[in-house]
Amino acid sequence: MSEGYCVKCKAKKEIINPAEETMKNGRKAIKGKCPTCGTVMFKILGKAAGAPPTAS
After folding, report:
1. Are 4 and 42 in contact (CB under 8 A)?
2. Helix (H, G, I), strand (E, B), or coil: what is residue 47?
3. Cα(38)–Cα(15) distance, rounded to whole angstroms?
4. Is residue 48 scored above 80 in pLDDT?
5. SS3 category, 2
6. With 80 as the cut, is the pLDDT of residue 4 above it?
7. DSSP label at 15?
8. Distance CA 31, CA 33 (A)
9. How many CA atoms lie within 13 A of 53 on its CB side?
10. What is the pTM of this model?
11. What angle do CA 35, 20, 13 make, to 5 degrees?
């Protein structure tokens, strides 16, 4: 599961119902809800997650 930061609770928590999305700039992100307050949580993934692996 993915862990993100809830701005409303001010704590790191597990993301409920995580769904992977692609932002306008092509980067990947995970969007879901906070288990405590229900606020939308959004975690931007690194460049390595968005780039396909290269075969040598």
Report:
1. yes
2. helix
3. 10
4. no
5. coil
6. yes
7. P
8. 7
9. 2
10. 0.71
11. 25
Look at residue 1 and tell me whether its pLDDT is greater than 90: no
Look at residue 47 in the predicted model and tell me its pLDDT. 73
CA dist., res. 24 & res. 29, Å (int): 11
Residues across the chain: 56
Region 10-24 average pLDDT: 93
**How many Cα atoms sit within 13 Å of 2 on the Cβ side?**
20
Rg (CA), the chain: 13
Q: How far apart are CA 4 and CA 39, in angstroms?
A: 12
Q: At a CB cut-off of 8 Å and minimum separation 6, what does 32 contact?
A: 2, 4, 15, 16, 17, 18, 19, 40, 41
Q: What is the pLDDT of residue 55?
A: 58
Q: Count of alpha carbons within 13 Å of 8, Cβ hemisphere only?
A: 10
